[in-house]
Specification:
The chain has 2 domains: 6-159, Aminopeptidase (3-Layer(aba) Sandwich); 169-330, Aminopeptidase, CATH 3.40.630. Helices cover 38% and strands 24% of the residues. It has 11 helices and 14 strands. The strands form 2 sheets. Strands 2-5-6-7-14-8-13-12-11-10-9 form an 11-stranded mixed sheet, sandwiched between helices. It has a 3-stranded antiparallel sheet with strand order 1-3-4. α10 links the parallel β12 and β13 (314-319). The longest helix has 27 residues, at 343-369. The N and C termini lie far apart (52 Å).
Length: 384
């Protein structure tokens, strides 16, 4: 029996009550109204930049009963689940891969709910609506990125293909301090981290932790300089802009951790993190000069120390990076769902994903064998 709900597809969040949207999004800061709307209002995720909003919303009268952050994409930048080879195969066969339909948080490889609804029935309704929309707008495909593991099976039930990736996360079983964390590691890894931290200290670099209220205009200017510098060093174009960072600090001040490293009173490095009390997400970093170990200290060790001090249970280090393993971040699987309109390409991708999944499974096993922790230390122990 059809659900007694009205479906509306919106090109902006401006008309939605933030409190209603946030009630569905929960405590994930990347899904809240302020974060998503800020991306659009500052021009970071806009139609001009290849992100055309097509938010699916379900309404029970004036009450928002379900939602999905959805975009019509003209490219595959800013997604962190790479389908460039699929697009190239389409092009070589004279077919258009773009536009495609994408359910994701722009520029954010952090797992979290994508089907914002309280029941499985409503979530399936959102998925069916997205698949129908993909056919209606003649999109080549529909993709849903970084859902939580419990929603991954719901994608398969809707006929989507499941893809597995790998990220590196740090878990806090209740460490008393950073030394307590180091004591859980093998001798070689503990020694390496101590050496890296010592080099930074000996260079005279000290760190400040700032929330959105404490960060000054000058500090946001400096962070933006560092952020842009990192992208230029990798010959890439920055996704985000100064206006978004300032807005993030103002709209979500309690969720922001801005780390500033200073050498003899002069700022030389910065990292932006987002947190919600139980999880901290490392996002961006940059530096204006090279100091050995500065990257690891600014991005990882300061974040780990913050988590220990504040009792944060999980630190997600962002996309990719095997070097994170030696710093105490362990491999975990991530997920995405995919549907391709072209039957033959759909079968080819399905076969590819089957092979890829077996390879990822073997890769996870290999990484786990190289854990930086002592073999008798349980990372899930509550009794420290």
């Amino acid at each position: 029996m059809p659900l007694p709900l009205q479906t509306r597809i919106l090109d902006s969040l401006a008309s939605i009550d933030p409190a209603q949207w946030d009630a569905l999004a929960g405590d994930n800061p990347f899904l809240c109204h302020a974060f998503l709307h800020g991306l659009h209002e500052t021009g970071c995720a806009s139609e001009q930049r290849g992100w055309t909003p097509r938010f699916i919303t379900l309404w029970d009268g004036a009450r928002l009963a379900g939602a999905m952050p959805l975009y019509l994409k003209a490219h595959s930048y800013g997604e962190y689940v790479f389908d460039w080879a699929w697009a190239d195969a389409y092009q070589r066969h004279g077919l258009d891969y773009y536009p495609k339909l994408l359910c994701a948080v722009p520029f954010t490889p952090a797992a979290g709910p994508r089907l914002l609804a309280p029941t499985a029935e409503l979530r399936q309704h959102l998925l069916r609506t997205a698949l129908e929309l993909a056919k209606e707008v003649r999109a080549s495909s529909f993709h849903l990125l970084f859902p939580p593991p419990e929603q991954a099976s719901e994608l398969e039930s809707a006929g989507m293909m499941l893809r597995t990736g790998v990220q590196f996360h740090w878990q806090n079983p209740g460490y008393r301090d950073f030394s307590d964390f180091l004591s859980a590691m093998t001798h070689d890894k503990r020694k390496k981290i101590k050496q890296e931290r010592r080099r930074v200290r000996e260079a005279g670099i000290e760190f400040d932790w700032l929330d959105g209220r404490q960060a000054t205009t000058a500090q946001w200017d400096f962070f933006t300089l560092c952020y842009n510098r990192t992208y230029r060093q990798h010959h890439s174009t920055p996704y985000l802009n100064r206006a978004f960072f300032q807005r993030l600090g103002q709209s979500l001040p309690d969720n922001v951790l801005l780390v500033i490293g200073s050498q003899h009173g002069e700022a030389v490095a910065a990292a932006l993190n987002v947190h919600n009390g139980h999880t901290l997400w490392g996002r961006y970093w940059g530096a204006t000069r090279f100091v050995g170990g500065l990257h690891f200290e600014t991005c990882y060790y300061q974040s780990i120390e913050f988590c220990i001090v504040r009792g944060v249970r999980l630190f997600e280090g962002g996309a990719q990076g095997e070097h994170k393993l030696a710093r105490g971040l362990l491999p975990v699987p991530t997920y995405s769902g995919h549907w391709l309109a072209h039957p033959r390409f759909g079968r080819a991708v399905d076969e590819f994903l089957d092979r890829e999944t077996r390879g990822i499974s073997a890769y996870l096993d290999e990484l786990t064998e190289h854990s930086p922790f002592k073999p008798w230390v349980s990372q899930d122990s509550e009794n420290r």
